[in-house]
Design goal:
The structure holds two protein chains of two kinds. By secondary structure, chain A is of the alpha/beta class. Chain A folds into two domains: 142 residues, Rossmann fold, CATH 3.40.50.300; 68 residues, no CATH class. Chain A contains ten helices and ten strands. In chain A, helix 3 packs across helix 4, helix 4 packs across helix 5 and helix 5 packs parallel to helix 6. Chain A is globular. The model of chain A has no long low-confidence stretch (mean pLDDT 90). Chain B is mostly helical. Chain B has one domain. Chain B contains ten helices and no strands. In chain B, helix 4 crosses helix 8, helix 6 runs antiparallel to helix 9 and helix 9 packs antiparallel against helix 10. Chain B is elongated and about 70 Å long. The two termini of chain B are 32 Å apart. The chains are: A alpha/beta, B mainly alpha. Chains A and B meet through helix 2 and helix 3 of A and helix 5 of B.
Chain lengths: 254, 245
């Protein structure tokens, strides 16, 4: 579980996060949603330790990240897996090398053990074996996302972060990636935090949703509750399209 | 103020490069890869440029020797001195600031733009050590390139003189051997090592701390090249004053 208490972050005079508190549950897919510029990416980068927060606390399973020593912070880092928006696979490595990279860096496993583990997670994300020795620019966007997920889970993380995991994908691939992340979250019992714009993801896999607006937490709840909310900011963002308005009407009637 | 902040950030970067080292076996393979790309990958252009620069220096010296009292061996002497003291270490370094420097800036800059550096950081890898340290170590072999550049420059001079029939081989070789001071080679190698460090770190700095998208990678490469060249020229002046002055 990740608990965030009153965190703020500014870049010079630009106050991006203004005292956000939230809780991300273990074994659930936790979504951060909001308009562009609402502070979602900065919020996630603060959780990842890529930005230092100005004030507040971030607890990883009760451990306050801010007061941990370098070794403690490193231990938390090693328990994180991250799927970046553009997959962020290393161009100079093939699929198998990308996935086994964290194992090479941080474990003393033999080459065969590392390869076995990399094969195992690549098969878990349903990647065909003929793609294993291809380079990132030789595979499709959907396959790149699968490889990125495989790389993120290869070290058995406790926390999985995904920054817009289905952006740039066709609807079917996007749904497959969403479902894959949800399955992995439940199967490995990890705390998953997903930053997304995609309303399909919100409806399908949003066990817990945190809605940000102008650097504040405007609303939080589940994908069931988001149908019922009368929060103006949430409804105008989530139900901005006619299709979702109709979906909501049908849901509320039923 | 902007430049002072950049210098401060550069110095902090250098300190961080040597912290939290990457596992030895991984670092070894990274160093070999960098040696292949930065050292052996530059040999062709260095051989080509050095040969022709040496040739031009010899021809220009020969064409300016109109006084019959000045011995023809001066052509070999002038070629040797020019090539060893300046053309091989400094001119080659400026050429490589373009070739190696822009490669380093653009490859690290692309990693920044595509979040590969963020991925390293999230994993708990020190990206500065992982990306820049192997380049610094690989460029310790830079004197190897400069030695070959010196040889090719003098060979270029020798060939040009013979082809244009401006002097005899005997005179040229006598000039090469006249008043040879071995310390000049030491001086050239000291400069070379400093230039190697500059070549590895300044383009890396511009790539690592770049902001923006693909277009900005190109801009960072150009800025990296300009600053690498400026620093090499200033370092050349200071080192020459300190060592030979």
């Amino acid at each position: 579980m990740i608990k965030v208490e009153n965190i703020s972050k500014s870049f010079e005079d630009n106050h991006v996060l203004k005292g956000i508190s939230a809780q991300f549950e273990k074994g659930k897919t936790n979504l951060i949603i909001g308009q562009s510029g609402s502070g979602k990416t900065v919020f996630m980068k603060c959780l990842l330790g890529l930005h230092e927060i100005d004030s507040g606390h971030i607890y990883f399973d009760g451990n306050d990240y801010q007061v941990l020593d370098a070794d403690g912070k490193m231990a938390i880092r090693r328990a994180l897996g991250m799927v970046f928006q553009g997959a962020a696979l290393f161009d100079s490595m093939n699929v198998l090398e990308n996935v086994s990279f964290p194992l090479k860096m941080f474990t003393d496993q033999s080459t065969s053990e590392m390869m076995d583990r990399a094969h195992e997670v690549l098969k878990r994300v349903n990647l065909k074996e003929e793609a294993f020795d291809r380079f990132p620019n030789e595979i499709s966007g959907g396959m790149q996302k699968r490889v990125a997920i495989a790389r993120a889970i290869v070290m058995n993380p406790n926390y999985l972060f995904c920054d817009e995991p289905n952006s740039g994908l066709d609807p079917k691939s996007a749904m497959i990636i969403d479902n894959l992340i949800q399955e992995i979250t439940q199967e490995y019992n990890i705390t998953t935090v997903i930053n997304t714009h995609d309303m399909n993801s919100v409806m399908e896999i949003g066990d817990k949703i945190v809605f940000l607006k102008d650097g504040y937490k405007e609303w939080e709840g589940s994908n069931k509750e988001i149908f019922k909310t009368d929060n103006q900011a949430v409804t105008s963002f989530v139900y901005s399209s006619d299709l979702f308005k109709k979906v909501r009407e049908v849901y509320l009637k039923s | 103020m902007k430049h002072l902040i950049a210098i401060g950030t550069y110095l902090i970067m250098i300190k961080e490069v040597f912290k939290k080292p990457t596992k030895k076996n991984i670092m070894r393979s990274l160093i070999f890869k960098e040696i292949d790309e930065l050292i052996f990958g530059s040999l062709g252009i260095v051989l080509f440029i050095s040969f022709f620069i040496g040739g031009v220096v010899a021809i220009q010296t020969a064409l300016n020797l109109e006084n019959p009292l000045i011995p023809k061996s001066l052509i070999g002497f002038a070629t040797r001195q020019s090539v060893i003291l300046e053309f091989a270490p400094t001119f080659t370094s400026i050429v490589l600031a373009g070739k190696v420097g822009s490669f380093i800036t653009s490859s690290i800059g692309t990693m920044r733009v595509t979040e590969q550096i963020d991925a390293l950081e999230v994993m708990g890898v020190n990206p500065l050590n992982y990306l820049i340290y192997p380049k610094i170590i690989a460029l310790l072999m830079y004197p190897f390139i400069i030695s070959i550049s010196m040889y090719m420059g003098i060979l270029g001079g020798f060939s040009a003189i013979n082809i244009a029939n401006l002097s005899t081989s005997t005179d040229f070789i006598e000039g090469i051997r006249t008043d040879f001071n071995a310390f000049h080679i030491t001086y050239a190698f000291i400069k070379t090592m400093v230039f190697a460090f500059i070549l590895a770190t300044i383009p890396s700095f511009h790539g690592f701390y770049m902001k923006g998208g693909a277009l900005d990678v190109g801009k960072a490469s150009t800025t990296g090249f300009v600053w690498t060249t400026i620093v090499i020229i200033i370092a050349n002046y200071i080192l020459t004053q300190l060592i030979l002055g």
